[in-house]
Amino acid sequence: MKNRKAIVPSLLILAILIFSVSLIAMDVSAAPHAQGFVTATPGPDGRILYTVVEGDNCGQVALLHGITVQRLRDLNSRLDQDCTLTVGQQLVVGLVSNEPTPGPVPTLPSPTPTPTPVSGTTEVCVLLFDDANGDALRQETEFGIEGGAVSLTNLNGSYSQQQNTLSSYDPDTLEPDRTCFPDVPQGDYNISMAIPDNYNPTMVVSYKLTVKAGDRASVDFGAQAKTVTAGEPVDESGGGRSPILGIFGFLLLLAGAGLGYYAWRSSLPKSKLKGSPLDKK
């Protein structure tokens, strides 16, 4: 009897110990899911990763990291429709920016403006172009005319130069070469253009210009080739009239003749015997 009484308390104590160990084991296994919101260290690319363990599902992982299941799906596009997870699978549970927080921008001192040195001379370029359509505006297909003479003269008489115009052009840009006067002192100038004999000017042939040091001026003059040379006979006999007018006049004459014949027949007296029985004899 005494041994039985000693065994019962021993069994009770043993049962309590086993139950206590089971509770401790349950707490240890449930510890990863009872931590609440987990703050993980992002990787070099700014992604926060979580490794799936046994018993995880999308709802638990989302709740553990404080995001929604839809956000978890957005961050992990490879999840299937049922959101199936496998042990050891890495999930992206957050994204952070690794850019450093910009600090205060230092205030730089205002730069001291440096005056640009200005040359004491300028350049004046002149073009005499073939104004084929006579509109006094240079088109892309209207190039320079050779043989003209352009003069550049200062109004106070301190400078006077003359050069010939050019018909050459740049083969790469198709821009005509201009006649340029380099190292021209600043001041007021008059530009005069002498047109070749076989051309007529389409613009004024004299132009006043004020230039300042460091500038580059460009002036265009237009001329059109003479279409009728001196001494060429001009046909004033009307040979240029259209033959359609002659045909139309002939048709009017025929119509008039037809109307005259119709009027003549209408004026003749009709026979009184027409339709009578005597007319059949």
CATH architecture term of the largest domain: Sandwich
Strand order of the largest sheet: 6-3-10-8
Annotation field: number of helices:
4
Tertiary shape: elongated
User: What number is the mean pLDDT?
Assistant: 76
Give the radius of gyration: 55 Å
Catalogue the unreliable spans: 27-38, 228-240, 272-281
- Helix percent band: 10-25%
Q: Secondary-structure element order, as H and E?
A: HEHHEEEEEEEEEH
Structural class: alpha+beta
The CATH superfamily label of the largest domain reads Immunoglobulins
According to DSSP, the number of beta strands is 10
What does the largest sheet look like?
Answer: 4 strands, mixed
Descriptive notes:
The chain is α+β, with helices and mostly antiparallel strands. It folds into 3 domains: 31 residues; 62 residues, Membrane-bound Lytic Murein Transglycosylase D, Chain A, CATH 3.10.350; 105 residues, Immunoglobulin-like. Helices cover 24% and strands 23% of the residues. The chain contains 4 helices and 10 strands. The protein has a 4-stranded mixed β-sheet, with no helix packed on it. Strand 4 and strand 5 form a beta hairpin. The longest helix has 29 residues. The N and C termini lie far apart (181 Å).
